[in-house]
Amino acid sequence: MTSPNNPFIPSPTDFSTNSVVNSSTGRARTETATAPPLGCPAHRSSGAPALRRLFGAEAESDPMGLYERLRREHGTVAPVLVHGDVPAWLVLGYHENLEVMRSPSRFSRDSRLWHALKDGKVGPDHPLAPIVAWQPIAVFVDGAEHERLRGALNDSLGRFTSRGVRRHITRFTHLLIDDFTTDGCAELVDQFAERLPMLVMTQLLGMPEKYEPQLVEAARDMIQGTETAVSSNAYIMQLLDELVAEKRIAPGPDFASWLIEHHSKLTDTEAAQHLRLVLIAAFETTANLIANTLRRLLTDRTLRSSLAARGGHLSLPAAVEQVLWNEPPFTAIFGRWATGDTELGGQHIKAGDALILGLAAGNMDPAIRTNPGGPDDASANSSHLAFSSGPHECPGRTIGQAIADTGIDVLLTRLPDIHLAVPESELRINSSLMSQHLVELPVKFTPSPRQPEFSAPFLPGSPAAQLQPSAGQSVSDLEAGSAPAATTMPDPQHLRWWKRVTAWLRRL
Question: What's the pTM?
């Protein structure tokens, strides 16, 4: 079933469930009683278990439980059904995931290879169309073209210094905390986890930071696939198109300028599309990471007491790494497509078959984690699958982790007695094929006064350099001026084609 407002957007009752956190396990459980039948008779074979679906109540209420059942039934690679009961392969093994990620000659990112697309099983109105419709951007190409586009991204991101980025993060974190520190309470998903990544990324891209609140709302709206997703995407692209045009004329020491100036010679359209790719990916991934880490710290007394800042042995970056192992921002990534007949994990993969990278399942593979949480647990290192691996590894993982590490560290320092404002069992999670998203994280703490703003070097010549708030000024003060009329949200009647891609993160 699809949304009555648009056939390209899946109905929330079909592809997303509302869950609560189990206080004993930390996992989400559903509040929805209705579940689709497990498997389809057309796919049954004598003696073989029925194929399980990666959508519906069973998958979304307890994805990790489903992954373990699939592992017991099929091993490290399991045949599954995706929306519309289209067959695919879910990669559950850690080493098998790495094999797929690092072998683009066997497992390509070019979705045009998928036989389900060729034979019409996955058409333009299919719920998966938004994430498999091929586009000429880095995430959908391999080989020389991928090297050209990815090289521009990597080289441009690589020009930032760790110290400079962290000073920006520190400054924006203090500004956000100053917005609620006198209240004694806050909702950390909306007021912190989702806003900090966008503030930092707009700064690094060379955008005026006063657009941050509108960009957060537009990005969230676009990702969730609401009725106004078209105008939200149009607003984001309008800002990015204008940014590219401005940087062509007056480049500065920022990511947008470096991307445009790169020897790969990106067109204006390519530059704007890849700016959006980085902006939205960084926002969603880092917001989830911050929210998941804060939830763990606020509900796991042992973990929080183990932090070195509180006299324990565990550093905050190490705690973040544990979250990346146990609750990666994305539980799965769709997908890769077999370039020819091959074998993986004892399964015979046919040319054109689709493979789903099971990041969360691979991180919990018993082959590498025999004692999760124990002293010999693999989560003590950073070799998890949270940011993928190989040619398509997330290019912004260093910046994303820096935002999480630094932001959470400053928050805990400023609000040392912060604690949940509701019972842990009331925390709600929206689950989907690709991720689990914490809806709210209400907290309480002892009210404290605003602190003088921590100075951070702005990118000289960038628009943000003209928008520095005065000492003691908060982000809400800075946002008093709205975006100029030239960049107001367009009418929803325009660019309706974008509604095909609005659900690709949280609603699939």
Answer: 0.77
Token pair of 103 as six digits: 């072998």
Mean pLDDT of the residues in the chain: 79
Q: What is the SS3 assignment for 218?
A: helix
Alpha carbons 297 and 305: distance in angstroms, whole number: 9
- Domains of the chain, start order: 2-501 (1.10.630.10)
Neighbours of 125 (CB within 10 A): 11
Packed helices 195-205 and 397-414: angle between N→C axes, nearest 10 degrees:
130
**H or E element, residue 442:** strand 442-444
Residue 355 β-bridge partners: 89, 336
| DSSP label of 372 | T
Nearest-CA neighbor of 67 among 81, 54, 82?
A: 54
Question: Residue 113: what residue type?
Answer: L
Q: Does residue 204 carry a pLDDT above 90?
A: yes
Distance of CA 104 to the CA centre of its chain: 22
Type of residue at 278: V
What length is written for the chain?
508
- Smallest CA-to-CA distance from 131 within 1, 341, 270, 277 is with 277
Question: Are 346 and 358 a contacting pair, CB within 8 Å?
Answer: no
DSSP designation for 451 = -
202-211, 269-278, 333-342, 475-484: range with lowest mean pLDDT: 475-484
369: which 2 tokens? Answer: 């984690």
Which is nearest to 450 in space by CA: 473, 416, 468, 417?
A: 473
- Return the structure tokens found at 165: 């980025």
Backbone angles phi, psi at 171, to 5 degrees: -60, -50
DSSP reduced 3-state for 148: helix
Q: pLDDT tens digits for 24-54?
A: 344 444 443 333 333 333 344 445 668 999 8
Confidence of residue 458 (pLDDT cuts 50, 70, 90): very low
Asked if 290 contacts 403 with a C-beta cutoff of 8 angstroms, the reply is yes
CB crowding 300-313: b at 16 or more within 10 Å, else e: eeebbebbeeeeee
Nearest C-alpha neighbor of 247 from the set 261, 237, 233: 261
